[in-house]
Structure formats: structure tokens, C-alpha cells
Write a structure and sequence with these properties.
- The structure is a single chain.
- By secondary structure, the chain is an alpha+beta fold.
- It has one domain (2-57).
- The chain contains four helices and two strands.
- The protein has helices at residues 2-7, 19-25, 43-48, 50-57, and strands spanning 28-33, 36-42.
- The chain has a two-stranded antiparallel sheet.
- A hairpin with a 2-residue loop joins β1 and β2.
- The chain is elongated.
- The termini are far apart.
């Protein structure tokens, strides 16, 4: 259903933590961290962003 809506030009906002699902539906991703925009880009850019991996996996601020 999401793909059908997107093909019709409908913009969809999804809040999701399951990156495999995000890879299937998203063209662009915005990552929030404590309510602030941390990173924006294509799915591949976000997946390969080292800071995103740190906050997504809960790395410490040592």
C-alpha cells in the first residue's frame, strides 16, 4: 500500500526503527537524536554514517 501511494506522488512520513523495513520503503531518511536532527540522506548514506550506528546501537559517549 505504501508503494502504491508513493507511486501516486503521495509523501509519507513514517516513524520507524526497523532499518530493514526503512530500506524497503524510504528514499530519504532523517535521523533524530534527543529531538534534534542528527543526520539526513539516502538510506545508504544513513546506514553507512558512523555516528548513526553509534546512536542507533546505543554506543556510549566515552
Amino acid at each position: 500500500m505504501l508503494r502504491t501511494l508513493n507511486a501516486q506522488g503521495v509523501t509519507i512520513l513514517a516513524v520507524e526503527h526497523d532499518m530493514s523495513f526503512v530500506q524497503q520503503i524510504a528514499d530519504r531518511v532523517t535521523v533524530l537524536h534527543f529531538g534534534e536532527i542528527f543526520a539526513q540522506g539516502s538510506v545508504q548514506e544513513i546506514i553507512s554514517h558512523p555516528g548513526v550506528a553509534d546512536i542507533y546501537l546505543g554506543a556510549s559517549d566515552e
